Amino acid sequence: MAKVIDVSYWQKDLDYDAVVDAGVKGVIIKISEGEEPEDTWWGHASAAKKHGLKWGVYCFSHASTLEEAAAEANEVLYLLGGEIPPMGVWFDFEAKTCLQCEDPTAVCSAFLNAITAKGIPCGIYASLSTLEDVIDVKALGDYVPYWVAQYNKRCEFKDDYPDNLLAGWQYSDSGCIGSTNVDMNEWYLDLN
């Protein structure tokens, strides 16, 4: 298990020396929101690499159709420029447009398929309640990794889905590194 943080524009001034000193082993960086690039992702990725940290990226989705999900995936692939993040790509499924779409599971599948078709590992980030009530986890297959947000004493994902892959657990949105607020995660996949 490793300590991981996720970052975006809100952490644009993050002190990466302090990140390393705090024992963080990995950083998941917001690369895009919908089809729009996140301006700070390049700086975060560069700093993470310079400090020897594993890194991944996430797309904060607004997709409500298969076509929109595929377009968001194409934007991520374009921004990565052929680079494969060691911690993969994550489909952040929490926006109202996603949660209220006609077929949330198919939207997730469309994004996953577009990324994995390029040989890049891809998973889903969502709250436990979204995974229980909105996305049909069992329909997506047990090989899909999940990064689960649940601000609780422990992550209960495996209680509901013992055969599915829990990659990480976001347990707090109020961590602090230096003077910067960060989301805190326990990571269960090997970061070596």
What would you say this structure looks like, in words?
This protein has 192 residues and is an alpha/beta fold. The protein has eight helices and nine strands. The longest helix has 15 residues, at 66-80.
| Number of DSSP strand runs | 9
Structural class: alpha/beta
- Specify the helix fraction band: 25-40%
The spatial strand order of the largest sheet comes to 1-2-4-5-6-7-8-9
Query: Radius of gyration, Cα only, in angstroms?
Result: 15 Å
- What is the average of the pLDDT values? 95
Number of helices: 8
**How would you sum up the global shape?**
globular
H/E element sequence: EHEEHEHEHHEHHEHEE
Taking pLDDT < 50 over at least 5 consecutive residues as the criterion, the unreliable ranges are none
Topology:
Layout: E1 2-7, H1 16-21, E2 24-33, E3 36-37, H2 41-50, E4 54-60, H3 66-80, E5 89-92, H4 96-99, H5 104-116, E6 122-127, H6 128-133, H7 137-140, E7 145-149, H8 157-160, E8 165-177, E9 180-187
Parallel strand pairs: 1-2, 2-4, 4-5, 5-6, 6-7, 7-8
Antiparallel strand pairs: 1-9, 2-3, 8-9
